């Protein structure tokens, strides 16, 4: 019997978490707990690389499919991957061990429980990207709220309880409608199997309402303007590892959902609502970029920049063009790497000075030069400099947007300029200038674990900037098939 590789990827972090749960959380066991969590997450990462190695890039069909009856006649536990989902699984397994390494410096109390929350979170995130049944997808999608709620609410800052509840309520309320839509889909078609639903199609008369119900959930999770306000609060209060997981992976679930379900299941409705997505995406890109310019808190600035970057993602997805959707996926992968790195960079100086305010810093380039160099790499990647992964995604998205709607593309391009302004302004004020604050002279440069995590993120950021071919080859066939199916469905309904 073949190894159930996807179930292994999903379950392994939870097994590690279970082991930690039964480990006594005494101070002498802290190092053991870190090593157990790190070992578990690294095994999962190498398993996902093995999955990528086995993956057949020439077919758009779902691979490594596991289909087991869960509730007879109702729900099947069905998982599988295609070119669209496999990269997100690798991103998840790559970011998780880096989060665990970063814990060295930021989390001191209840370390065992924190590591358990991260590992359980990994299980749910991988489950989201593997699910080929709507109910299974929904369960994984919503379950991810619980560990993140705990991470913010227990280990967060002064306003952690407020931020945790705001995050929880926003995302939960959005998802209630999606649950109603999934029940409706089962009532209309008699199945929640995603592959079967692709083949059957959903009657056009139901699509608009179902699309809006799914949209309500994905828009909050992305987050799109105007339901983005929970994100800056969550980021500011979350511990560094929590911010990294939230920015790098949690936001990508919604982008993935738009591609897999909004386009795949409701093509006619997607056609109808494309102007709405364009409008909200452009507002998100420009409006939140302008807000980012006004921020005095480093975490808030990066949080608002995430909303702007995800605006590019939604714009690219709904161009319904090869370049646009490829660009969106590459942008999500790139943003996962770069935003994770930026939050880790903020965490480095916060651990030393206990301040996130930009005004606290200035002139630290001479004090911590290694930090300044790595921070510069990620700043330039965030503003989309050619030679970084951030450029590839944004360029492809804007190319597709110019083909589809010239005005939208021009307005989105303004966002790129404003993005460059706030990122360079942040870097200038933190790194350069006069060393006014004498306390900064006591700062020490990156330690081994900090340098390691940031270097691990810098390498793929630069590598995929110069050579995005491995990413494009993986996703190309699946996206082409999705667009062909979409165009056929739209044409046949006219």
Describe the structure.
- 76% of the residues lie in helices and 3% in strands.
- With 494 residues, the chain is mainly α.
- The protein has one domain.
- Strands 1-2 form a two-stranded antiparallel sheet.
- Strand 1 (63-71) and strand 2 (75-81) form a beta hairpin.
- Helix 9 runs parallel beside helix 12 (267-293).
Q: Work out the count of structural domains.
A: 1
Strand order of the largest sheet: 1-2
Strand content: under 5%
> Radius of gyration over alpha carbons?
22 Å
Average pLDDT taken over every residue: 85
Number of helices: 19
What class do helices, strands and sheet pairing give? Answer: mainly alpha
Beta strands, count: 2
Biggest pleated-sheet summary: 2 strands, antiparallel
Could you state the oligomeric state of the chains shown? single chain
* Poorly predicted sequence stretches spanning 5 or more consecutive residues: none
Q: What characteristic shape results from the CA principal axes?
A: globular
Quick synopsis:
With 494 residues, the chain is mainly alpha-helical. It has helices at residues 5-21, 30-54, 83-106, 111-130, 134-143, 145-155, 160-189, 194-200, 204-221, 230-237, 240-265, 267-293, 298-317, 322-353, 369-382, 389-404, 406-431, 448-466, 469-493; strands at residues 63-71, 75-81. The protein starts with a helix and ends with a helix.
């Amino acid at each position: 019997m073949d190894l159930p590789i996807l179930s292994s990827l999903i379950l392994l972090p939870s097994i590690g978490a279970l082991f930690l749960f039964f480990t006594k959380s005494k101070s002498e066991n802290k190092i053991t707990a870190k090593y157990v969590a790190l070992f578990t997450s690294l095994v999962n990462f190498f398993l996902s690389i093995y999955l990528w190695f086995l993956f057949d890039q020439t077919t758009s069909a779902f691979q490594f499919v596991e289909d087991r009856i869960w509730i007879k006649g109702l729900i099947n536990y069905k998982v599988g991957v295609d070119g669209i989902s496999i990269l997100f699984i690798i991103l998840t397994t790559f970011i998780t061990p880096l989060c665990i390494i970063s814990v060295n410096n930021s989390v001191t109390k209840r370390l065992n429980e924190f590591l358990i929350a991260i590992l359980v979170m990994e299980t749910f995130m991988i489950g989201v990207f593997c699910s080929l049944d709507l109910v299974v997808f929904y369960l994984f999608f919503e379950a991810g709220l619980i560990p993140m709620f705990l991470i913010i609410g227990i280990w967060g800052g002064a306003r952690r309880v407020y931020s945790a509840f705001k995050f929880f309520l926003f995302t939960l309320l959005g998802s209630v409608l999606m649950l109603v839509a999934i029940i409706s889909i089962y009532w209309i078609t008699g199945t929640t199997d995603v592959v079967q639903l692709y083949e059957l199609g959903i009657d056009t008369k139901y699509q608009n309402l179902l699309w809006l119900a799914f949209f309500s959930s994905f828009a909050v999770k992305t987050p799109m303007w105007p339901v983005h306000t929970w994100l800056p609060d969550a980021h500011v209060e979350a511990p560094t590892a929590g911010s990294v997981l939230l920015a790098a992976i949690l936001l990508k679930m919604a982008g993935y959902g738009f591609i897999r379900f909004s386009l795949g299941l409701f093509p006619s409705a997607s056609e109808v609502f494309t102007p709405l997505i364009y409008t909200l995406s452009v507002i998100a890109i420009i409006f939140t970029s302008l807000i980012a310019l006004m921020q005095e808190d480093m975490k808030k600035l990066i949080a608002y920049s995430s909303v702007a970057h995800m605006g590019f993602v939604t714009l690219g997805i709904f161009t319904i063009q090869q370049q646009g959707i490829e660009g969106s996926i590459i942008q999500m992968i790139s943003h996962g790497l770069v935003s994770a790195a930026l939050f880790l960079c903020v965490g480095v100086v916060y651990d030393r000075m206990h301040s996130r305010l930009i005004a606290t810093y200035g002139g630290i380039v001479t004090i911590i030069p290694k930090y300044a160099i790595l921070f510069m790499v990620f700043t330039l990647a965030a503003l989309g400099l050619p030679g970084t992964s951030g450029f590839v995604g944004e360029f492809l998205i804007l190319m597709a947007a110019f083909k589809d709607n010239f005005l939208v593309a021009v307005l989105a391009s303004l966002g790129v300029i404003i993005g460059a302004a706030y990122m360079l302004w942040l870097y200038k004020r933190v790194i350069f200038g006069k060393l006014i604050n004498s306390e900064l002279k006591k700062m020490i440069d990156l330690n081994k674990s900090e340098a390691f995590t940031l270097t691990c993120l810098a390498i793929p950021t630069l590598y995929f900037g110069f050579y995005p071919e491995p990413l494009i080859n993986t996703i190309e066939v699946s996206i082409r098939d999705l667009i062909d199916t979409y165009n056929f469905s739209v044409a046949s309904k006219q």
